[in-house]
Specification:
about 55% helix, Rossmann fold, 6-stranded parallel β-sheet, about 300 residues, alpha/beta, globular, Histone, subunit A, about 10% strand, 6 strands, single chain, 14 helices
Length: about 300
């Protein structure tokens, strides 16, 4: 079965398209957020979550605390469950978001994650704290040289996950990834949203300024005051990372805003490059063919309803 997926770079207009479709189909739609940062609670402004008026129609938003890991494999399992639940209740599931790896996890033979032991994870993180990431990278080189060659020595997230696999399963992570392949249950019908880069950059600049005006600095400070470490993967991301530098007195506010804009533009280009590797994706330029896009999506949804 093919699942409708609305993809595109950050700030391209995905939420606006979702809102327009909801105006047409009301509660017949169930959106599944495909965004690696919107899963985190308390991180609202910096992740540009949907407005409250439509947020109730989205799943996989606000499901983890900022210090919890949410992997591509977690997304694939959750998305499959929600797709089935939606179909069982006569709703049309639509996946929407800009995290390419999550789509790959759901629609390709992605690595099926094993049952994890929190004690193993804690042991590895304790090692990193005591001896540094360099020590863990050397250990990975000894135990799985094939994978180590593909990783940057400072990529502590992937290094620690690889060692977690080795400690738990007793085999190299590269070998485990070949053996533990998950089954594919659904196909993707990709609809891509794009705009001329000049317009997209203008939207990114406008949205970034709005984030800071709405209280991104206060939101970031609140997260730090709650005890969340600035080096967490959730906070070491665009917007929060630059704001933390400002809060620590390492930059001026204007510089934080400027760097957030710049880094978001780089991220948008990277998203587009990744999405263009997807097969059979139909691209629509919102500056030229918004009505054509809406008509296409309406047609696809009506076919699924019937």
């Amino acid at each position: 079965m093919k699942i409708l997926c609305i993809v595109g770079p950050t700030a391209c207009g995905k939420k606006e398209i979702a809102a327009e479709l909801l105006n047409i189909f009301n509660d017949r739609l169930h959106f599944i957020s495909c965004d690696s940062r919107k899963v985190y609670r308390y991180m609202d402004i910096g992740t540009a979550k949907p407005p409250e008026s439509i947020k109730q129609f989205f799943s996989l938003i606000d499901i983890r605390n900022p210090d919890e890991i949410y992997s591509a494999g977690d997304f694939a399992r959750d998305a499959e469950r929600i797709i089935r639940e939606s179909l069982n209740t006569a709703k049309i599931p639509i996946i929407i978001g800009g995290t390419p790896l999550y789509y790959k996890a759901l629609f390709s033979e992605f690595f099926e994650e094993f049952k994890k032991d929190p004690k193993v994870r804690a042991l590895i993180l304790d090692k990193m704290k005591k001896y540094g990431i360099e020590s863990l990278y050397e250990e990975l080189r000894e135990k799985d040289s094939e994978l180590a060659k593909k990783l940057h020595p400072n990529d502590w997230i992937r290094i620690t996950r690889a060692l977690e696999i080795i400690y738990t399963l007793g085999i190299p992570a590269s070998e485990a990834r070949k053996k533990l392949r998950r089954k594919i249950f659904f196909e993707a019908h990709y609809v891509g949203i794009m705009q001329p880069m000049r317009i997209l950059y203008e939207k990114i600049e406008r949205r970034t300024n709005e984030m800071f005006e709405k209280g991104l600095v206060e939101e970031t400070k609140r997260l730090l005051d709650m005890g969340y470490d600035e080096n967490l993967p959730s906070l070491n991301t665009i917007g929060y990372r630059e704001t933390i530098r400002y809060l620590k007195g390492e930059s001026e506010l204007a510089e934080a805003i400027k760097k957030t804009c710049k880094n978001t533009k780089v991220y948008a280009r990277r998203q587009l490059r990744f999405f263009r590797t997807f097969e059979n994706i139909a691209w629509y330029n919102l500056s030229e063919s918004t009505s054509e896009l809406i008509n296409h999506l309406q047609s696809e949804i009506k076919n699924r309803i019937s």
